[in-house]
Amino acid sequence: MNIKKILLIQPPCTLSKSYTKEIQPPLGMAYIAAVLEDKFEVRILDAAVEGWHTEIAVSKQEIRYGLSFEQIAARIKEFAPDLVGISCLFSMQAHNAHQVGQIAKKANPKIITVMGGAHPTVMAKKVLEDSAIDYVVIGEGEQIITKLIDCINQKQSVSEIDGLAYKQDNNIIVNPKTSFIQDLDALPFPARHLLPMDKYFKINMPHGVTTRRSPNTSLITSRGCPAQCIFCAIHPIWGKKFRARSAENVVQEIKHLISTYGIQELQFEDDNLTFDKPRAMSIFDQMIQEKLDILWTTPNGVALWAMDEAMLLKMKQSGCYRLCLAIESGDQDVLHKIINKPLDLNKAKHLISFAYKNGFETDAFFVIGFPGETKQQIKRTFSFGRSLDVSNVNYYIATPYPGTKLYEQCVKNNYLVKDFQADSLGVKKGVIITSEFTPEELEKMVSQEKLLFYVFLLFKNPKAFYTKVIKRFVQDPTYFINFVKNIFKKIL
Fold first, then answer.
1. Conformation bin of residue 232: beta by default, left when phi > 0, alpha when psi is -120 to 50
2. Domains of the chain
3. Which end of the chain offers a freer environment for a tag, N or C, measured as fewer CB atoms within 10 Å?
């Protein structure tokens, strides 16, 4: 078979009714499309955005939004691709991704199906047990998918492709991911022109939800993380070494987004935008020097442990108005001895107060419920959260995603609930049992503390309370009502 036409599909999304719907361009697929479109006819189908207003209840607690599988089948038949690439970023979306693969094979059994993303990266063998999936791309996919297509078109063996999982003689072969793209500047900008950008702009519900200007969009400037946090699932995807685009390349993309789409606000989706301080400062300096009238936020979090006051002031000057701060725990021992996060809480508290005084909106992220953590330490985290000068606090429950050290620890010590399913994991759902707590206790503690925090926020920061509670209710009353119901359900 000679591959000429490629269709990349973002499946519809399954979501808890207590979560906020979000949508933004799938940059991973857009990068892959960008490296392929010079040689092949490429299309991207983001079923989630195309069917944004279509919601189907899949259980009492969950909905699925996006194009129906029948509509996706029609799109596949209309384009008649030779290869279908399927994105599966989270295990919770695995069922939808497999369904797309089955639809593609039903439309034409000769279609080659490839799945990529965080879930297939760490569950490659399980994914390939599905007869509808031919290949799995492990980690970043630009080089792998290019080599795979070349091998298929030239009728060569795929056995030497680094980071590819495939089937051979009824066996599943997984080639480990051993190399990563070092020169990220060599990659073309994501092929956003293949996406319905106007729909993302109109919906205006990106990651983090909060925006001040529209149109807005996301970008990624770096990959990889040298930190060793036990719950983080990013290492199998991007690796443990920090790799970054040059400041010049980043600013060039920002200018492209402004001139092409009229972008007025950006979401930096990096895991470590501020890790390399000289590079980060250079990006912010160039944004200032170029007089880019742009606002920006960091919904995926920033490396607070690598920041200082000078950097915060430079970020503010270049247009940053909101920071998401991944603190994880308010107990220093939990941070260092359990999570392995290189953060000093005294420094964190100082920088957060400094950011508050300089007009930043700030969201703090915490994770509770790790094996070895005590209820007293969890209470210290709650107390620390209340003491901060922040606009909002989000408490999540430790989630043992396959591929993480936390998952390995839980399996080894039998900490997982009996009905544990990787494809039903969520950051608000407890699945870890220790002598200190049960999943139900953790969920109740988080719900109680979230309610208590909003009471504190009402008196401590009325403006932030309006933004996080009143404005959210007006913006999406259904979500807000479900959110409140879920809190009181857990408490009672």
1. beta
2. 5-174 (3.40.50.2300), 184-491 (3.80.30.20)
3. C
Q: How far is CA 198 from CA 8, 133, 195, 214, 263, in A?
A: 19, 32, 9, 11, 11
Q: Which amino acid is at 385?
A: G
- Helix, strand and coil percent figures for the chain, each rounded to 5: 45, 20, 35
Give the whole-angstrom CA distance, residue 272 versus residue 320: 15
Residue 1: exposed, middle, or buried by beta-carbon count in 10 A (0-12, 13-18, 19+)? Answer: exposed
> How far is 181 from 178, CA to CA, in rounded Å?
11
Letter for the amino acid at 13?
A: C
C-alpha angle 79/134/422, rounded to 5°? 105
What percent of the chain has pLDDT above 70?
95
- The DSSP bridge pattern shows strands 295-302 and 41-46 to be unpaired
Residue 256 pLDDT exceeds 90: yes
Query: How does pLDDT run across 166-181, given as a tens digit for each residue?
Result: 999 999 999 999 999 9
The reply to whether the predicted model has a pTM over 0.70 is yes
Helix (H) or strand (E) run with residue 33 in it:
helix 27-36
CA dist list (Å): 258 to 195, 208, 214, 238, 373: 17, 21, 12, 28, 46
357: burial class by Cβ within 10 Å (0-12, 13-18, 19+)?
exposed
The C-alpha atoms of residue 9 and residue 76 are separated, in whole angstroms, by 10
Scanning 88-225, the segments in alpha helix (DSSP H) are: 94-107, 118-122, 124-128, 142-153, 197-203
Specify the amino acid at residue 168: Q
Q: Which residues contact 476 (CB under 8 A, 6 or more apart)?
A: 20, 21
- Residue 61's pLDDT is what? 84
- Supply the DSSP string of 407-463, one letter for each residue: HHHHHHHT-B-TT--GGG--TTS--B--SS--HHHHHHHHHHHHHHHHHHHHHH-HH
- The pLDDT tens digits of the residues spanning 14-36 come to 998 878 899 999 999 999 999 99
Please confirm whether the linkage preceding 215 is cis (ω < 30° from 0).
Answer: yes
| pLDDT above 80: residue 90 | yes
Q: Residues 174, 138: contact at Cβ < 8 Å?
A: yes
Please work out, in degrees rounded to the nearest 5, the angle formed at the alpha carbon of residue 302 by the alpha carbons of 47 and 315. Answer: 105
Residue pair 101/132 in contact (Cβ under 8 Å)? The answer is: yes
294 DSSP 8-state letter:
-
Token digits of residue 179 = 């190399």
Burial of 227 (0-12, 13-18, 19+ CB in 10 A): buried
